[in-house]
Design goal:
This protein has 113 residues and is α+β, with helices and mostly antiparallel strands. It contains 2 helices and 7 strands. The longest helix has 28 residues, at 85-112. The termini are far apart.
Length: 113
């Protein structure tokens, strides 16, 4: 079964059991599921890109992240993972704006010398 990442929340029925795949979640869809979902919305699914550590499929089709060596040393207390994409984008814009202002300020200071 091909792995795909859901761009939107979708519901599939593998082996007659209801499974909700959340947006951003990787799942082993059947070829029939992929055909049906892309017929409804061509952008509903996308191929996974090496976004995280290697992943292994669970028996129910869902994907569990491989913790890998040294995973216990990863700091998971960061609040960044709790942010929505819009909040992350706003933080990035603010950081870029501040960096540009700092750059402009430093170039103004060097011109005055």
């Amino acid at each position: 079964m091909p792995q795909r990442v859901a761009n939107v929340s979708v519901t599939v029925y593998p082996e007659g059991k209801r499974k909700v795949v959340a947006a951003g979640e990787t799942y082993n869809f059947t070829k029939e599921d992929i055909a049906a979902l892309t017929a409804l919305d061509p952008n509903a699914l996308r191929k996974p890109v090496n976004e995280t550590l290697p992943e292994e499929a669970d028996n129910d089709g869902s994907v569990k992240k491989n913790q890998g060596e040294g995973a216990d040393k990863i700091d998971t207390t960061s609040k960044d993972s709790d942010l929505t994409p819009a909040e992350k984008a706003a933080q990035t814009r603010a950081a870029n704006k501040k960096a540009k202002e700092d750059e402009d300020k430093s170039s103004d200071d060097s011109e005055q010398l």
